[in-house]
Design a protein that fits this description.
Strand content: 15-25%
Structural class: alpha+beta
Number of helices: 11
Radius of gyration: 25 Å
Shape: elongated
Order of helices and strands: HHHEEHHHHEEEHHHEEHE
Strand order of the largest sheet: 1-2-3
């Protein structure tokens, strides 16, 4: 049967797929719109499978803070190239996913992928559909959620890096400016944990062994290696745990001291850092 321009445009409006893809799908489906939609979705699945191993180093990071400021959600939708990250359909899908994450209360990436959008189909299917349309791998690489007395967000100017800082013990103190400073510290300094006791044991053991090997290579006596390694471990904690890091804007203070100076009892309960391509 003949496929008209009106038919192609109708399918394009239904699916958002390109004109030529819509025309081919309608021709293959012999004018049956439901079959044509299925063909386009299968095309997305094929593209997703073909590009599954491709790296995603571009995209967008979005944040949502609840009205009372106690809950924050941070999500990164990634793609392969910068031009695709600037396509309206990509941006709109990212925002729709974050919106449904907030409204549904999804608390993990897996739960979010299974959550339906407005048309009743899950997020995972929408990602596959847009993969077919844009021809690139798309992936939610991070989805984080925190709760505390006050959550302060930060999105870097490139739109590919975001931070949430969760404060407890606020007690009426305005932590907006402090929160931004701490969030920017996290963005720049990439702490791996909040404090020493949150660094996983495998990392601690590795740092001790590295410290011993360095000391041994420097010709230090075997009996001194453990003590030297422990000293290097304390330096590692200072560089890589948030509360023990020097405050970038005032090196005379650690972040812990900065919090104490701001308000008694003020603490960072947790933080999340999400970055695309880094």
């Amino acid at each position: 049967m003949a496929i008209t321009a009106q038919d192609v445009n109708k399918l394009r409006q239904m699916t958002g797929a390109g004109m030529m893809d819509c025309k081919k799908a309608l021709q293959e489906a012999e004018g049956d719109f439901d079959k044509a939609v299925d063909i386009l979705r299968k095309q997305g699945q094929k593209v997703a499978a073909k590009r599954a191993d491709n790296a995603v180093s571009e995209g967008t990071v979005l944040v949502n803070i609840s009205e009372d400021g106690s809950t924050g959600k941070l999500m990164a939708l990634a793609c392969e190239t910068e031009p695709v990250s600037n396509v309206e359909d990509f941006k709109n899908l990212a925002q729709s996913i974050l919106d449904v994450a907030v409204s549904s209360g999804a608390d993990s990436k897996e739960a979010l992928m299974a959550t339906p959008l407005a048309d009743g189909r899950p997020v995972s299917e929408h990602i596959i559909d847009l993969t077919g349309k844009l021809g690139e791998k798309l992936e939610i690489i991070s989805f984080e959620s925190v709760q505390a007395d006050k959550v302060v967000p930060y999105i870097h100017s490139n739109g590919k890096l975001g931070v949430l800082v969760a404060f407890d013990g606020v007690n009426g103190v305005d932590v907006a400016e402090l929160g931004k400073d701490v969030a920017m510290q996290i963005a720049a300094m990439k702490p791996i944990a909040l404090d020493k006791d949150e660094v996983d044991s495998a990392t601690v053991e590795r740092e001790i062994e590295v410290g011993k090997d360095q000391a041994r290579a420097e010709g230090k006596p075997e009996a001194m290696l453990e003590r030297i390694a422990q000293g290097k471990l304390q330096k590692f904690y200072k560089d890589n745990t948030l509360l023990n890091q020097e405050f970038v804007k005032d090196s005379s203070l650690t972040i812990r001291q900065l919090l104490e100076k701001t308000a008694k009892g003020l603490t960072v309960k947790s933080f999340k850092r999400v970055a695309i391509g880094a």
